[in-house]
Amino acid sequence: MASKSCANILDLIPDKLLDIPQTPRNLPRVMTLPGVINGFDGESDSISSGCPERKIIVTNMLPLHIQRDPDTLKLTFSFDKDSLFWQLKDGFSPETEVVYVGSLKVEVDASEQEEVAQKLLEEFNCVPTFLPHDLHKKFYAGFCKQQLWPLFHYMLPICPDHADRFDRVLWQAYVSANKIFADKVMEVADPDDDYIWVHDYHLMILPTFLRKHYNRVKLGFFLHSPFPSSEIYRTLPVRDEILKGLLNCDLIGFHTFDYARHFLSCCSRMMGLDYESKRGHIGLDYFGRTVYIKILPVGIHMGRLESVLNLPITASKVKEISQRFKGKKLIVGVDDMDIFKGISLKLLAFEYLLQMNPALQGNLVLIQIVNPARSTGKDVQEEKRETYLIVDRINETYGSPGYEPVVLIDRPVARYEKSAYYSMADCCIVNAVRDGMNLVPYKYIVCRQHSPHFEKSSMLVVSEFVGCSPSLSGAIRVNPWDIESVAGAINSALTMKDSEKKLRHEKHYNYVSSHDVAYWARIFMQDLERASKDHYNKRCWGIGFGLGFRVVSLSPSFRKLSPNYIVSAYKKSSRRAIFLDYDGTLVPQSSIVKSPSEELISILNTLCNDPKNTVFIVSGRGRSSLSEWLAPCEWLGLAAEHGYFVRWSGSSEWESSTPATDLEWKEIAEPVMKLYMEATDGSSIEVKESGLVWHHQDADPDFGSCQAKELLVHLENVLANEPAVVKRGQHIVEVKPQGVTKGLVAEKILSRMVERGETPDFVTCIGDDRSDEDMFESIRSTVLSASATSNPEIFACTVGRKPSKAKYYLDDTADVIKLLGGLANASDPKPGNTARFQITFDTIF
């Protein structure tokens, strides 16, 4: 099934496919470079603005109520207006078309599926996935509920009785289900215009399938559950696949910073990805794509809740509750029956409160509403049994004729009835030991605001491990495991002065009413639009296989350096300058043997013996190592320690850019570095002649990064008046003399060539790390300023496909050697003119 966002979704049903107008809505896009698509020829962007926007919402379950007609046995459908996914459309403009993709809550026979799919598409803009029964059971009840859900709530399968062990069969079902969801999305999605928003942990690898099919898909994901700390998450055998799945999104949303911080920590520890804040937005650079992280707590639908409060049946229920519990203070709790909601802990705290405060006996009632369990299992049954035992014990001990301290409502409770209890309760308690968000406090606040029986006030006791806790600054936050403290918090809430209750309530209501579900959806979609706005400004490559697939996204002008192209320019040139990094460029970073191969020595000698060439190795390594390894290359220039030491040939002397007396600051910096080395296990110090480097690649990633930031500030302070600069690199903090960079040494070498009347018309610079970026930038400005009348050929080339100031890339060191070999074959070696190498470096610096 094909789709266009300007076409009405109703036109996509099979019997109307032939009625779709054949006239294209726009001129086709034109591909001018591989992977780069231009805009419409002769038409502005405003053309597509006439088409209605379309958002595709992908959820595990469609927001529908489903019933089977007893007479016709046909399925009937209606929107579930209490579903968050139905309510979020209020955050979009009225013209926006919203399409839902997800499963149905009932199993549909294969013979009915085509008819049901057509009906849902026509009448509800819904696309059902129809997972086979066995697959759905393994996917949802198996992998989602028995493995992901406990793990994301910090429950490890330490023993078989505690949680289910990892099952590869269930994981394969999860992958298969996600693939089916992806196929359904691709049937209706127009990747050029549609925005796709995937929800929750059931569909965490779906982004990989979508990104593989559409490299530039506009894709957001929101996790409604907690994200565990890296120590917990890393126990998952398929941790890499899930993490890479999420990173195939443009925007990933979390309820709290804690959840986002745990995700970022996993990215750092497992994949070496560091994040940075870009104008208030957190971003991860992932193969040239910026994956944005959004902290955005979900809200409630104010209008829906207020409409329920205005129902006559709600007012009648409020009156009934008021008469039944006349003269008593009410505490309300509404929780699902599962092990993480802390119901038994709440009851124990309430029991302790009655025990320690006899005056409350007979005057205080806890209304505990228990929603039906979302999953079945031994742990749920044990929690239910314990709950009933504690309730019976409390009521037997502290109850009396006509008074039950705990009223346990364990049945499906209508929204109007819950709203009535919220309206009448003096305090609401949410005591979960771990919960993604929990909107019960929000609903309680709104109900108390609109209660006609009381002044506008409310009190909340909220577990600090619940997602809504950071948003409710006026609530009394508790550790649910500390029963005595929870009891004390309830007592404080009940005895607090009315004036303070009103102030806390007003603060909460202002927040809840302004941060509703529409606000949540609108802000998330705005950020998704911003995160994906540059998709067509970059070239994209898909790399990796299976669930390891990802997209490399780079500048349109960034392309692989063709050996034929550079050799052609090389042959036409009359004066050349060649700058080469060493580690990672000529020798692989992973290689244990760092000395050059015989092949490399031969190539370098051939290039150096060409009188048209000036060849330099520009490295961060010390001069002793470079001198020893490259001794056979007599005419090769060396720049060691990023250019602090320079030698123009094997027979010339090393020259330094700064007198030795200017390195006295090393005596100040070294003790500071040693202090951090001793405090950071796994770190080390590298002592160079011109500087010092503190390495932390073998330290704990989070602690090492934190210590590096502290060390950077510390060194900047103590060296503020010294001729030294402090820089932070990948897993290092380096102190070196001012005015020493690879870019500066390349610039000065080129300037000297110009002064001697040997302005190069061919410059090649190849490197692989951050320090080489300085060279890429400086060679262009230096050569172009010196060549006012000519058009020199400049080849700045990085090793590996990654964001760079270079215009070209080569895949690895093998490509570099092959390219240099091609240049060497193109040379016409002649006896070297030794005079051109005998330059006193003092004249350059």
Helix and strand layout, with pairings?
Elements: E1 31-33, E2 36-37, E3 54-61, E4 64-68, E5 75-79, H1 84-87, E6 97-103, H2 110-124, E7 126-128, H3 133-152, H4 168-188, E8 195-199, H5 206-213, E9 218-222, H6 230-233, H7 239-247, E10 251-254, H8 257-271, E11 275-278, E12 281-286, E13 289-295, H9 302-309, H10 312-324, E14 329-336, H11 343-356, E15 364-371, H12 378-398, E16 406-409, H13 415-424, E17 427-430, H14 440-449, E18 460-463, E19 476-478, H15 483-495, H16 498-514, H17 517-531, E20 539-543, E21 550-554, E22 559-560, H18 563-572, E23 576-580, H19 598-609, E24 613-618, H20 623-629, E25 637-640, E26 645-647, E27 655-656, H21 666-679, E28 684-687, E29 692-695, H22 701-718, E30 724-729, E31 732-737, H23 742-755, E32 762-767, H24 770-786, E33 793-799, E34 808-810, H25 813-826
Parallel strand pairs: 3-6, 3-8, 6-7, 8-9, 9-10, 10-13, 14-15, 14-17, 15-16, 17-18, 18-19, 22-34, 23-24, 23-32, 24-25, 32-33, 33-34
Antiparallel strand pairs: 1-2, 4-5, 11-12, 12-13, 20-21, 25-26, 26-27, 28-29, 29-31, 30-31
